[in-house]
Amino acid sequence: MKILNLYAGIGGNRKLWGDEHEVTAVESEQYIADVYKTLYPNDTVVVGDAHQYLLDHYKEFDFIWSSPPCPTHSRMSTVSVARGRRKYPDMSLYQEIIWLQHFFKGDWVVENVTPYYTPLIPPTAVVERHYVWSNKKIDDKTFKRGYDGPINHQTVDTLSSVYGIKLPEGTKNQRKLLRNAVLPEMGAYVFKEVFSE
Fold first, then answer.
1. CATH number of 2-194
2. Could you report the per-residue pLDDT of 22-33, keeping only the tens digit for each?
3. By the 8 A CB rule, do 29 and 87 touch?
4. CB 76 within 8 A of CB 115
5. What pairing do the DSSP bridges indicate for beta strands 63-66 and 130-134?
6. How do the domains of the chain map onto residue ranges?
7. What does pTM read for this prediction?
8. pLDDT in tens, 143-185
């Protein structure tokens, strides 16, 4: 199966998918793409604009997973606004859901955090602390994360242990990269749900 993993980050969602598929990951930041390539050396890694890559290449894949940036949708946005840092929600999230609903013939998933507002398009499921939109039925699910309290307060060692991801020595922003990763068990659960029919 040919899989497109958009906004791949360090590949938390992809960690438990196995290696029998042909995965293309798109990440905009070179240093993050380098970490992904170290963790998943058999995947094709593209450094570029995932939003545009979807438009240009969607027909080449059997399954698409998209995790558009979440900071402007997160409940933490209300804190940023209160501190004077104002940003509109990034609407590429909904653009991609609508595009995939109408034009992609394969299976797809779009994942994002539970937002501070009522979503413009109701999600297919709530999995862990994320909304998931898909063309397949996915049941709601929560996971035991292996730590107490908010993810923002966890150490690199705790997050590495929970995610089962050891970042290469010298990787910058390790805590942020791990905090932004999708829990591997969540990625595996959603992947299995999509292909369980």
1. 3.40.50.150
2. 999 999 999 999
3. no
4. no
5. unpaired
6. 2-194
7. 0.90
8. 876 666 666 668 899 899 988 999 999 999 999 899 889 999 9
